[in-house]
Amino acid sequence: xxxxxxxxxxxxxxxxxxxxxxxxxxxxxxxxxxxxxxxxxxxxxxxxxxxxxxxxxxxxxxxxxxxxxxxxxxxxxxxxxxxxxxxxxxxxxxxxxxxxxxxxxxxxxxxxxxxxxxxxxxxxxxxxxxxxxxxxxxxxxxxxxxxxxxxxxxxxxxxxxxxxxxxxxxxxxxxxxxxxxxxxxxxxxxxxxxxxxxxxxxxxxxxxxxxxxxxxxxxxxxxxxxxxxxxxxxxxxxxxxxxxxxxxxxxxxxxxxxxxxxxxxxxxxxxxxxxxxxxxxxxxxxxxxxxxxxxxxxxxxxxxxxxxxxxxxxxxxxxxxxxxxxxxxxxxxxxxxxxxxxxxxxxxxxxxxxxxxxxxxxxxxxxxxxxxxxxxxxxxxxxxxxxxxxxxxxxxxxxxxxxxxxxxx
Length: 409
Fold this sequence. Notes:
This protein is mainly α and 409 residues long. It has helices spanning 8-19, 23-32, 36-64, 71-79, 84-113, 120-137, 139-165, 181-190, 198-204, 209-237, 247-252, 258-265, 268-300, 311-327, 332-363, 366-390, 400-407. It has one domain (8-399): Up-down Bundle (Amino acid/polyamine transporter I). The relative contact order is 0.19.
């Protein structure tokens, strides 16, 4: 092992950083309407599933002996050339959908926390140009800007936990609505989407199985703890259904969690930390996804090597999500639901499970076959659930609407 090889700790932090992002801002709102215990239960359940999918991809990468392969190569070697027809639209859905969600969330956060609701369009364009320009300036600048905003993200998140945690009310933690939990699962899935960095993790750790598994475990575990603490803090502070600044109002208006916190608690410190936290989370995620989409499109179109000066690839990367956001500006939670329930579950859940199932069939290991089949069925159920909700075939409403009606007749 080379002396300059990254440690398991640094690899774990990289994995955690890849999964944390704007999902933090959406997670407490939708999961909160199911109640604390269901929300945390769903969080642990999805964490287990996504940890398993990461292990499968890492094992496949190591077995193939690739030094520079990406997920396309892994899926093609694990499933066959037909997988390209699934992976390509899946990647486009995930990348474009997340950029739309981040643009919508960024404009909403700036408008509410700066008290400029009438200037939302201008703030959307400002966030778009600054974030997109950061990607186009070059990879070196991206890493420097991302490092600064990660520092702001961590600092403001800790400050938010301290400020908000002091106002947690135990009565807010007892509500439970298990029937609403399935509708929150796609948002939770988005909070554990790190699998696209697995090839680089395997390479950096020299395909050492033990170190890779530890990095995956501790990296995803850190995301689990951070997400769990954030859910507890937000659910414990926000009223369930009591007008402006409530969980229900934020859910209906597609607001990130920091918006109802600022509206409800009337604290300048929380408003300021919320602004820093929200923008840092959105900016770092937007830049990372934007760079990933730009590279993906350059590879897909055979235009690798031109870098950030390829204006055709740049336009195809950033103009479509901006156009969608301008037409439909309130898509933050909605788009993360679609991305999580369809794109992420398909790419980072079902396809790895199918790779695992095919490997188990070749090796004739019945226990592994059953485990793989179980994973496949769970991920298929999540996709069917999301499709049912999006096409109106399955209506899942928060029980809190009726609770609110009985409390305030």
